[in-house]
């Protein structure tokens, strides 16, 4: 997620397009901030939208709409962001101890008046009699003029000791990682925090300002003996003016330090390009990455030129070069 006013406006337009036009082609779904998980033979995609949008697919190509996660906004949301409209940002889905954990973002415009919540379910099949999302409340909250970070864009990762960590953040003083309790619903004590990525911020800006260090949406992917940190740089959600791009760094330990191909630390502005806009798309970003059936995939949204910047889902197979850096097929 980025610069909240612009983001909310663009998301609202995107959802309106979806509701008016429907899905003429299953792969032409309107998507921001996709995450994916597989249950049995079905892939489930969660993304930004009213109540959290959900789609399902058998082949990662043809997607069908599923019921939204929250019919009504979380009961605590207005206490974080006044008059919240149930337009929930940037979910993250994981399966642990026979339960699905869905993290999500509640925020206010152009402020770090934000919180990350989590909901749980024992199945993703909406036709299953046991299907029921249960909100577990706030995991972490940020407040203007208190915190120089923003509690949005969550991503859960387990280290080599099966310790849970939550990566998150957007703008301000960079992307953070904090240790969670085993219940996955609260911060562990004593608290352990790390800055895993950062870009230069103009010093003179007030603390309440998002700033000009444009980065967000960390996603940690374990592979090849490394933790790869994907993140998005620059600006999303501006249609033809979107400059979003995905960069990457890696570390032998989950908390970093992460470095790019040139050895530059990500918490000092480092990051090696993975994907950006091209002849078909204005900008591309907010990715996730997974291994399904022995193949590695990257999922992200990109602003389609032929439809004047409509955000589309992109799915690509991810391979690895001789130095074990990701390349897209």
From TrEMBL:
Keyword DNA-binding attached: no
Pfam families assigned: Glyco_hydro_43
Site entry (Important for substrate recognition), positions: 286
Entry-linked SUPFAM superfamilies: Arabinanase/levansucrase/invertase
Annotated site residue numbers, Important for catalytic activity, responsible for pKa modulation of the active site Glu and correct orientation of both the proton donor and substrate: 153
Gene3D superfamilies assigned to the protein according to its UniProt record, in alphabetical order: Glycosyl hydrolase domain, family 43
A Gene Ontology BP annotation from the UniProt entry: arabinan catabolic process
Protein name: Arabinan endo-1,5-alpha-L-arabinosidase
Keywords recorded for this protein, A-Z: Glycosidase, Hydrolase
Signal peptide (UniProt feature, chain positions): none
Entry similarity comment: Belongs to the glycosyl hydrolase 43 family.
């Amino acid at each position: 997620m980025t610069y909240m006013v612009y983001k909310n406006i663009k998301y609202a337009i995107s959802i309106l397009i979806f509701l008016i036009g429907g899905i003429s082609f299953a792969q032409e779904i309107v998507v921001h901030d996709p995450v994916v998980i597989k249950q049995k033979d079905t892939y489930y995609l969660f993304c930004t939208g009213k109540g959290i949008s959900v789609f399902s697919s058998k082949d990662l190509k043809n997607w069908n709409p599923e019921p939204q996660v929250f019919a009504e906004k979380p009961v605590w949301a207005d206490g974080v962001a006044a008059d919240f409209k149930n337009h929930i940002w940037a979910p993250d889905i994981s399966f642990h101890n026979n339960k699905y954990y869905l993290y999500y973002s509640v925020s206010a415009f152009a402020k770090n008046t934000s919180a990350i919540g989590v909901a749980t379910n024992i199945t993703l099949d909406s036709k299953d009699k046991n299907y029921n999302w249960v909100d577990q409340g706030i995991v972490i909250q940020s407040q203007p003029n208190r915190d120089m970070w923003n509690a949005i864009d969550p991503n859960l990762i387990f280290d080599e000791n099966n310790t849970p960590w939550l990566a998150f953040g957007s703008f301000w003083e960079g992307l953070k990682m904090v240790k969670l309790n085993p219940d996955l619903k609260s911060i562990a004590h004593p608290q352990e925090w790390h800055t895993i990525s950062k870009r230069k911020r103009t010093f003179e800006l007030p603390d309440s300002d998002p700033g000009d260090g444009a980065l967000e949406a960390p996603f940690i992917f374990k592979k090849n003996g490394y933790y790869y940190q994907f993140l998005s740089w620059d600006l999303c959600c501006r249609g033809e003016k979107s400059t979003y791009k995905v960069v990457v760094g890696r570390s032998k330990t989950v908390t970093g330090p992460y470095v790019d191909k040139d050895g530059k630390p990500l918490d000092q502005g480092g990051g090696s390009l993975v994907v950006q806009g091209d002849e078909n798309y204005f900008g591309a970003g907010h990715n996730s990455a997974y291994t399904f059936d022995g193949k590695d995939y990257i999922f992200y949204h990109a602003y389609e030129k032929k439809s004047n910047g409509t955000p589309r889902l992109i799915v690509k197979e991810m391979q690895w070069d001789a130095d074990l850096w990701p390349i897209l097929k």
